[in-house]
Structures are given as C-alpha cells and as structure tokens.
Design goal:
The protein is of the alpha/beta class and about 300 residues long. The protein is built from 15 helices and 8 strands. It is globular and about 45 Å long.
Length: about 300
Amino acid sequence: MTPPVLPGFGYRHVDVDGTAINCAVAGSGPPLLLLHGYPQNHLMWRRVAPALARDHTVVAADLRGYGDSAKPAPDAEGRVYSKRLMARDQVGLMRELGFGRFALVGHDRGARVAHRLALDHPAAVERLAVLDIMPTRHVFHHVSREMGLAYYHWFFLAAPNGIPEQMIGADPAFWLDALIGPLLGAGARIEPDVMADYIRCFSDPATIAGSCADYRAAASTDLADDDESFAAGQRIGCPVLVLWGTQGFVGRGYQPLAVWQDYAADVRGTALPTGHFLPEEAADLVIEALRDFLD
C-alpha cells in the first residue's frame, strides 16, 4: 500500500548533521514549522497544513525516531532522543530550507520539542503554539493518581530492559488502536488509511525503540534540562498560544493558561471541544485559532 501524503506538498529528506529528517513542504509566505505527536507522524496535520499553506510556507516534519525520519540507536544516557537534540534537528532542518526564523506549532511530543527549541534557540522562533500539553517539568512535579492513570503510557514507555519494545513489537496495531481510541473525543475517528500509516511506522522496531527512548529521555535527561532552565529563570520570550481539548486530561486535570504563564512571558489560548488529537478532531477550529495567532 502506498503511504498517504499531504495533498499539494513536496517531500524531501534533509540531512541535518548526519540525521535525515523527512518533511513535506508547500505554500509561500512566512515560514511555519509543524511538529507531530505520539504515536503519529506529519500526517496528523493533513487537515490543517493545506489550509495554512495558503498564507505560509508550511514545513511538516517527522521527528527523529518517528515516521520516515532517521532512527538513531538510543544511548544509555538518554541524549540521543533528548528534546534538546530533537529540537536541534528541527532548527537545522529549517536552516537547510533557508529559514533562520519561523513560527512553530507542536502537538504532544512535538510540542515538547517545540518548548525546548524556543528555550534553546529563541532567535529562531517568532511565535509558538503548543497543543494539548502541559510542560514536562510541571507534569512530573505534580504526579497524582489521576495523572498516572491518564498518562500510564508515560511510565510504560519509559520502563527499562526492553519491556515496552517487546510488548509493542508483538502487536503494533493493537497498541496504537488501544492507545489512540480512548484519547479521541466523542465521535472522533482517524481514517483507516492514515491509521494504517501510523501502524506501518510502528511496525519498524527502530520506531518503537526510538519512541521509547523519547519517553525515557523525558523522565530523565529532559527533566534535568527543564529543571535547570527553570531554576535559571529562563522563560519563553515569544508569544505563546495554548490550545487544549475539553475532553482530555489536560482540560480536566490542569489550569493550562495559569501553568504556562510560569514558563512563558506572553501566553494566551483557549479550550476546544475535543479529545487529545485537536488537529485530527477539529481541524477548522485549529486552523481558525492558528490563523488568528499567526497573522
């Protein structure tokens, strides 16, 4: 089966310091980078990216370890899949494409990469939108029973000794269906061909290994980096848009704007009537919110 593509987008693999990053590019105007979440790839923007490409040069990229980007072997220290290094990939990608400064939108894991990118490379980010996440540091410093049950996969995927790799590898389709289904809002669904592509990528043991390393880094290396940045008083300086779903745990368990105001100087945002996967559940509302923010 031929994998689906973003309509009207051209595809390329861009070498960034020896790591090939897969991306789709279309449109003209101010540059805009879109970063996906777990367990997806750039196709999660399929309903959003073409509309935004009418006014922007849109780059939808696969994170290292995901989709059709390179999947380096994880290291014991957690640096290979640290958000710092994943952010460096994406800054390098945009520079290779000719964009030294750009707007940035991330969902889920992509939003965590975007958060670190905005801290480490503030001159590169004009505006930042984060979709349905709280800062990693805040989540780990406020663990509760409710959080542990809602985000059980954070702890499962970070487990050692190859446990999640072995279990997911036994039936990747079951894992993705079991994880995604409960996180979707009422009545929402992902088209079978797109879901098949997510499963295709997770049928590669290197994707499973890389994505588990991503979660292990979040609980170790990334948390240390975030604590250090916060203690040093480092905050995101560009305008930040926060969007979240009313039917997901972010909407139920946190006060998103109040939390993000501890991490950024200029925060605004709103809830949408969705579950976790905002761009796939309410594309029109996401497009409207992003256009208002980006223009």
